[in-house]
Amino acid sequence: MAKPMTKTQLVAALADKMDADKKTASAALDALTGIITDEVSGGGAVTLPGVGKIYCRERPERMVRNPATGEQFKKEADKVVKMTIAKALKDSVNG
């Protein structure tokens, strides 16, 4: 598996695609990240066309097991961020 792209590499690639400087691209990336974080943490969802949908899902209270000791205990209800990948991206990866 290839190494994941770092934020610095992503900003450089974004600046190249936008024909802008790295400062502008970094500000755009930070703004996009902030918008997604605010929307999803507020219970909404964000669709990135061609990439996927990011949303928050609630998980109910459940019994879990510690694999080291085998002890079972109750885990409180919580929320988890999920992402559904767009068909266009799946198709481009699979050829």
Automatic annotation (TrEMBL):
SUPFAM superfamilies: IHF-like DNA-binding proteins. The keyword DNA-binding applies. Keywords: DNA condensation, DNA-binding. The keyword DNA-binding applies. One of its GO terms (molecular function) is DNA binding. It holds the Pfam family Bac_DNA_binding. Histone-like DNA-binding protein which is capable of wrapping DNA to stabilize it, and thus to prevent its denaturation under extreme environmental conditions. Belongs to the bacterial histone-like protein family. This is HU family DNA-binding protein. It comes from Litorisediminicola beolgyonensis. The lineage of its organism: Bacteria, Pseudomonadati, Pseudomonadota, Alphaproteobacteria, Rhodobacterales.
